[in-house]
Write a structure and sequence with these properties.
The chain has 136 residues and is an alpha+beta fold. The chain is built from 4 helices and 7 strands. The radius of gyration is 15 Å and the shape is elongated.
């Protein structure tokens, strides 16, 4: 069951990444200002060290989200430099209740393996979906 959930999560991330790639407006500008120097299509994409589980271990469920029973996925675009450090995190679609801010905080604390082209580390973009689900 967990393998199926991991595959579905990966599929959502791939679809989300495709949507980000195609999110160029009619003027040829990117979705978010300031991201032009970061490649989205790289030979070896950046990845969070410890995976999505590592990011989730750094996040705590916000009290407001617990009180309002807020659940769902927070979609973010992460700008990662050549060293694997997070330069910026942009919310693409949030769920509120403090979950958006908690996602940004957790992602910024995460170290990534940098994206690579032709064996060289490059600045890259990575789309992530962080799931918030209340315990049953």
């Amino acid at each position: 069951m967990k393998t199926l959930q991991n595959k579905l999560t990966l599929l959502v991330i791939i679809i989300f990444a495709f949507l980000l790639i195609t999110s160029v407006n009619s003027n040829g500008k990117t979705f978010f200002p300031g991201e032009d120097d970061y490649a989205i299509a790289v030979e070896k994409p950046a990845a969070p060290i410890g995976g999505l589980e590592g990011i989730m271990r750094k996040a705590s469920y916000p009290d407001l989200a617990i009180k309002t029973k807020t659940e769902g996925k927070v979609y973010v675009l992460v700008l990662i430099n050549e060293s694997g450090d997070v330069d910026d995190v942009k919310i693409v679609k949030g769920i509120g209740g403090g979950c958006d801010e908690e996602t940004v905080r957790a992602v910024k604390k995460t170290k990534f393996t940098p994206g690579q082209n032709k064996g060289a580390n490059v600045k890259s973009k990575l789309a992530l979906a962080v799931q918030f689900k209340l315990p049953s």
